[in-house]
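Thread: Modeling a multi-component assembly for a lab meeting

Hi all, long-time lurker, first post. My supervisor asked me to bring a structural picture of a complex we are working on to next week's group meeting, and I have zero experience with this. I have the sequence lines for every component (544 residues in total). Could someone generate the structure of the whole assembly? Inputs are pasted exactly as I received them:
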Amino acid sequence: MIMTDVDIAIVGGGCAGMSAALSAYGHGIRNIVIFERNSYLGGVLKQCIHNGFGIHKFREDLTGTQYAAKLIDDIVKTDICIKTDTIVLNITEEKEIVAVSSKEGITGYRAKSIILAMGCRERSRGELMIPGSRPAGVLTAGVAQRYMNIEGYLVGKKVFILGSGDIGLIMARQFVLEGAEVVAIAEVMPYSGGLARNIVQCAEDFGIPIYYNTTVTGIVGKKRVEGVFISDVDENRKPVLSTERFVDCDTLMLSVGLIPENEIAFKAGIKLSEKTGGPIVDDMLQTDIDGIFSCGNCLHVHDLVDFVSIESEVAGKNSAMYILDKIKKDKKPLVIETNDGEGVSGTVPHRIDLNKGEEEVTLMFRPNSKFRSCTATARINDRIISSKKMPVAVPGEMCELKINKNDFGPFEKNDKLTVEIIP
Amino acid sequence: MEKELVCINCPLGCRLKVRVEGEEAKEITGNLCKRGIEYAKQESILPMRVLTANMKAADCERPFSVVSSKPLPKNMLIECAMELKKHSPKTPIKMGDVVIENILNTGCDIIATSNLPEESL
Ligand SMILES: Cc1cc2nc3c(=O)[nH]c(=O)nc-3n(C[C@H](O)[C@H](O)[C@H](O)COP(=O)(O)OP(=O)(O)OC[C@H]3O[C@@H](n4cnc5c(N)ncnc54)[C@H](O)[C@@H]3O)c2cc1C
Ligand code: SF4
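Re: Modeling a multi-component assembly
Sure thing. I ran the full set together rather than chain by chain. Output:
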């Protein structure tokens, strides 16, 4: 196969891929290619017609489509090469890439650096193991959203929703505004993972009930969904079958979580984190393979696109620094690993190299339950390196803690930087 | 009349109690900051919402998306969404185009947030 040489190859043309590309371009790299399997750039933003995007980055309340347009406008002003309708099948440790498109067939690339920006996929019915028949009318929220907003058809008239996170809620409202009925939303937890804004404006506004501590225990229907069985769950989230009852509906929409998309990273031998589902990265967002970076929802699932942009600009910049040989390779690494302490899950980055990268590092993590007036801290043994007070912390919103490499002080080889939320 | 609301302005989600007399919010309790007061005043008297939805053009299978130029009264939301279905403008539609002016006399315009036909990128 003929191999085309490029400086940076970016897998995925969503917010993460485009933001990383623009940042690398801004740092002087010209030979950049973005591979995108869809026929358009923008990723999930293109199917998000609701507003609530860009408040942090652009200080404007934009729709997802408007946010995407801003990035695309900037991309087309550059000579970044865009390969839409092109799926990356394989990448290797040597940074070789195999892509396939209907136009060009199978093509090969050799890159100096790769940025992984594949986004995430949705947990499906199979992963939930809901028993019952397999009729039409069972689909995930993202698929329903794409049908409605990109293809233009209504997927059901009487919809039951499992999962009360933001995506489920946003879709509930959209069904109503398109003229469908949303019977109810079932949530297995005692609370919704969604923003208060979405609970009020997407469910309460339209009188859609949310059944907490409830799950779907069966699907009924031969050709098309005719209804679902729902049951209360006990404190271990196990269904109490004596409470099972039938709900009439023609569609079951699942909105039960997202998983970073990392099949090609896994095949390339990149180490993945069990907690986030994304690659293990250092503070430059570099994976355990030199020169391969990761950002956006394929690194860890984000709630706000603004933070995807900010994170991906870091990956793009460091990819450029890697190529320009500005990552102090002569300096010996001085690495400390991060560790989820009390109240915290999924801290990113997983390691910090004190001799490389920027002086200031942003730690990102999720609270594992709801806290009021709490403190987030990062410590090495008993020594607190950074802390900040937060009026509230909820699992639905990622937290940040900034930390300066000059504040680390001495540490032993096996010491870890523990991130905690203390009530 | 007493109304109960959840403030949506930050993740604290304060539970607000508002005593409404006629067209006025009299007594507001439960808020931890003054944004809660502003919200309670607006929300208990005239709640407003941004409308986002899809529309169809006269000559294209695919939909395009729209947003209201500003928030409109909540009780007009569904009526306005149904009104959108009565309009089918012709392509090309460009992001930022006003597709309906002053929808149902709300003072809000309906603005396109996508292009039709979609540009090739
Ligand atoms: C329904 C929904 C509602 C949301 N609501 C909000 C909101 O109100 N406010 C907000 O700020 N944020 C919101 N978000 C979050 C935000 O939109 C996302 O976090 C962000 O857009 C993710 O960007 P990304 O580039 O990481 O992923 P994506 O947008 O998923 O992009 C990844 C891209 O990679 C491509 N790809 C994957 N694998 C390959 C491959 N092998 N070869 C080629 N291409 C590949 C995919 O086709 C895709 O285009 C929402 C997200 C969703 C899904
Ligand atoms: S009143 Fe203030 S503190 Fe309470 S939810 Fe509203 S914005 Fe947050």
